[in-house]
Write a structure and sequence with these properties.
By secondary structure, the chain is mainly alpha-helical. It has 6 helices and 2 strands, in the order H-H-H-H-H-E-E-H.
């Protein structure tokens, strides 16, 4: 029998650890439901400039690196990584998604996993109440992590839906 739990990730403040456990569980769930799309399915866009499984996963990894490393930890990101994640080509607010690299799903998962591991290290010593000023608002670390959890679930569901659409096209 499988046992599910979201026990706080060790080494973090318990509030942040619980949110991170939720993030990990969200990712596990959408990845299981995504199954194993082919590289063609990963690159498929149902309309011009529209979402694809690959572009959505790259965007999710970019979001984690942005919020945890760049915004909260004030760490610079490399130009090489920004290009790999198609950061400048992606404009989700105006539904402009680039064609992603033609790679197997394992490539995307490994990239996402590497960025997540690195990003979590960037926030490990921070407290839930720590405040980070932005241009329009200020954010606590607790809000930032909760936002990334929500973002993961939102886009993970899109990736699953895109694969279902691919299979039925």
């Amino acid at each position: 029998m499988i046992h599910y739990d979201v026990a706080p990730v060790p080494g973090f403040d318990p509030q942040i650890g619980l949110l991170l456990a939720t993030l990990n569980d969200s990712t596990r769930e959408w990845r299981e439901n995504l199954e194993e799309p082919s590289p063609e399915a990963i690159c498929w866009q149902p309309a011009a400039d529209f979402h694809s499984i690959g572009a959505v996963i790259l965007h999710m990894a970019d979001c984690e690196a942005y919020w945890f490393e760049e915004f909260a930890a004030k760490q610079e990101r490399t130009e090489e990584e920004m290009k790999l994640l198609l950061v400048r080509e992606t404009d989700q607010d105006n539904v402009k998604w680039p064609a992603p690299p033609n790679q197997p799903i394992e490539w995307y998962f490994e990239l996402h996993d590497r960025i997540r591991a690195r990003s979590l290290l960037a926030i490990k010593s921070m407290t839930p109440e720590q405040i980070f000023p932005g241009s329009r608002a200020s954010y606590t670390l607790r809000w930032i992590v909760a936002h990334v959890v929500e973002h993961d679930a939102y886009h993970g569901g899109q990736a699953v839906l895109l694969h279902e659409l691919w299979k039925r096209r």
